[in-house]
């Protein structure tokens, strides 16, 4: 495919996926961060209540919008589309996630310490992977379900017996926490796999597996 054709395919994909709506949503989340980001939310945990700054949860909103942007009126066609259209989907998703990361990071570098910007960027990557997995399971418009469900362990079990944040709490562990970066990598890998394994590809894989098993059963031992 020529480069001009590829760009036209990406442009058509963007129009079908409401690029303006995505940009407006990102802008609204950024405004909420600037105005309400320092508001402390009192959330329950095993020892009582914990105060969590509102901005710690905002990467979840960015990630959910990014994953939900894969929804469109042409969803069924896109699930079985040719390689060129799938490439446009991947380019679109990469662009949306990168845009969310840039908006979040730049804003946090302006209004928060650099360490907080890195922590929230890591949280965005984790929640993006979880949101993509949620979108594949429940539908892209419901990409927020699993990210929202992850808030419960992050708040209710965030402290260990000594009152320290647990190693897997990616919203509070320091920027250089290897465990949390491993979670981010695993979440993105799972999310990427969820996007790649379309229902059509899954059905084809099951058919190939069934055929292989059938051939194995018909071969009699010598």
Task: Describe what this molecule looks like in 3D.
The protein is mainly α and 222 residues long. It has one domain. The protein is 69% helix and 5% strand. The protein has 9 helices and 2 strands, in the order ααββααααααα. It has helices spanning 3-16, 19-36, 58-68, 75-79, 83-111, 114-138, 145-156, 178-196, 199-218; strands spanning 40-45, 48-53. A two-stranded antiparallel sheet has the order 1-2. A hairpin with a 2-residue loop joins β1 (40-45) and β2. α2 packs parallel to α5 and α6 (114-138) packs parallel to α8 (178-196). The chain is globular. The termini are far apart. The relative contact order is 0.12. The mean pLDDT is 83. The chain crosses the membrane at residues 21-41, 91-111, 117-135, 179-200. Keywords: Membrane, Transmembrane, Transmembrane helix.
Present the secondary structure layout.
Layout lengths: L2 H14 L2 H18 L3 E6 L2 E6 L4 H11 L6 H5 L3 H29 L2 H25 L6 H12 L21 H19 L2 H20 L4
Antiparallel strand pairs: 1-2
Keywords: Membrane, Transmembrane, Transmembrane helix
Briefly summarize what is shown.
This protein is mainly alpha-helical.
Summary keywords:
2 strands; 5% strand; 222 residues; mainly alpha; transmembrane; globular; two-stranded antiparallel sheet; transmembrane helix
Strand coverage percent: 5-15%
In helices, the fraction of residues equals: 55-70%
Mean pLDDT: 83
Poorly predicted runs: none
The secondary-structure element order is HHEEHHHHHHH
- In whole angstroms, the N-to-C terminal distance is 50 Å
Question: How many runs of DSSP E, i.e. beta strands?
Answer: 2
Sheet with most strands: 2 strands, antiparallel
What is the domain tally? 1
Radius of gyration: 21 Å
Strand order of the largest sheet: 1-2
Q: Output the number of helix runs.
A: 9
Q: What general form does the structure show?
A: globular
Question: What class, by secondary structure content?
Answer: mainly alpha
Transmembrane segments: 21-41, 91-111, 117-135, 179-200
Keywords: Membrane, Transmembrane, Transmembrane helix
């Amino acid at each position: 495919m020529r480069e001009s054709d590829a760009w036209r395919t990406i442009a058509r994909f963007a129009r079908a996926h409401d690029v303006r709506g995505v940009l407006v949503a990102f802008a609204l989340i950024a405004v909420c961060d600037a105005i309400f980001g320092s508001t402390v939310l009192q959330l329950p945990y095993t020892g009582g209540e914990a105060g969590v700054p509102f901005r710690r949860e905002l990467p979840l909103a960015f990630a959910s919008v990014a994953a939900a942007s894969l929804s469109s009126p042409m969803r069924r066609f896109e699930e079985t589309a040719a390689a060129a259209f799938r490439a446009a989907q991947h380019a679109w998703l990469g662009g949306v996630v990168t845009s969310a990361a840039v908006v979040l990071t730049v804003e946090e570098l302006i209004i928060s310490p650099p360490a907080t910007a890195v922590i929230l960027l890591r949280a965005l990557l984790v929640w993006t992977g979880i949101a993509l997995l949620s979108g594949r399971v429940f539908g892209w418009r419901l990409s927020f379900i699993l990210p929202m469900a992850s808030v419960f362990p992050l708040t209710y079990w965030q402290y260990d017996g000594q009152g320290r944040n647990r190693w897997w709490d990616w919203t509070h562990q320091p920027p250089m926490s290897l465990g949390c970066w491993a979670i981010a990598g695993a979440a993105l890998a799972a999310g990427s796999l969820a996007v790649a394994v379309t229902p059509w590809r899954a059905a084809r894989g099951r058919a190939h597996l069934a055929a292989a098993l059938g051939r194995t059963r018909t071969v009699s031992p010598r």
